[in-house]
Automatic annotation (TrEMBL):
GO molecular-function terms, A-Z: pyridoxal phosphate binding; transaminase activity
N6-(pyridoxal phosphate)lysine: residues carrying this PTM: K185
Domain of life where this protein originates: Bacteria
Keywords: Aminotransferase, Pyridoxal phosphate, Transferase
Family in the record: Belongs to the DegT/DnrJ/EryC1 family.
Coiled coil as UniProt keyword: no
Membrane spanning residue stretches: none
InterPro entries: DegT/StrS_aminotransferase, PyrdxlP-dep_Trfase, PyrdxlP-dep_Trfase_major, PyrdxlP-dep_Trfase_small
Name of the protein described by the UniProt record: Glutamine--scyllo-inositol aminotransferase
Organism: Pseudoalteromonas phenolica
Active site, per annotation: K185 (proton acceptor)
Amino acid sequence: MIKLSQPQIPDSAIEKVGEILRSGQLVHGEECNLFEKELAKFLGAKHALVVSNGTAALHLALLALNIGPGDAVIVPDFTFTATANIVEAVGAKAIIVDVDKTSYNLDPEKLQACIEDWQEPETLKAIMPVLEFGNPTHLNAYKEIAQQHGLFMIEDAACALGASEQGTMVGTAAEFGCFSFHPRKTLTTGEGGALVTNDSALYEKAALLRSHGMQRTENGVEFKCIGLNYRLTNFQGAIGRAILPELNNWIVKRRELANQYTELLAPLVQAGELTLPTIVEGHSVQTYMTVLADSYTRSNVIAQLRDKQVESNLGAQSMSSLGLFDHSYNSQQQYPEGTRLYTHGLALPLHEGMSHEDISKVVNALNEVLGHA
């Protein structure tokens, strides 16, 4: 079976994890502290906080910015549900805006229109753009729009570690950038995530919230605020540290494989069977998602590919299609792009452990399934 994704864990990380497990220092410790420093340096950011998962990073960002009941946060229609869920979890409303069909990211024109036309009773506080599958497109446009309207910006960069747009590293353009280290991500620690900021005051607040509001002083532990437990374990920090130096090379490999897909799938595009993602400069290519023609039922294609030993899946969800965020504004809108990506998006296997022969096998299998063998 050619897997959709396969975590790559260096032997050095496995050995280090064994050392840490034997040491007994399992909770957040020196490996996590070093990982934070190295991650901040990699991104060119002032501060990084490693946390238990990407959703925790989003949660801390919202709490640090005092977003809660009576507020509204704009999210894209096409994303994993964590993006909108966590807005609702703090008591705010997730306001959905459609994406564009080529980048799969929040449509800047529709974002601008939502902000300018806003008449709902909630206070529009922030935008939370997702850099879907590692695509940095519109990152700087989002920043300009947020600044123009006096809104906070939280980058949901769960899939986009290592991506950049015109010299701006994803995760560093806003008040906060939030990353995930889930096994589907290029850098994984099993579960895990990180919160990045250039604002020292926000960093200090998020750091307190991450660990029970607890601060160690000369007089012992003091509790400064009500907080949570979103710490990463020490052995997860060691895994992250081992992978980080490999990340840029792995992204180069992913881009090579994605370009091969694009070349080999061109005949299917010409035949009108599917469309392909645009791999722009700075794309970190966490996922390669095609979009099937309307005539296909994706579940059937997935099943037939599985029979040919190729794993595939949907790309993400459409927030407007889930029935969970039926606020007044959302109910009045149409989401043609996000809905179609949800129903017809087909993610193909892609990871740095794949070979060019693997890509050819996937394309051959897809050609057979779509009747173009």
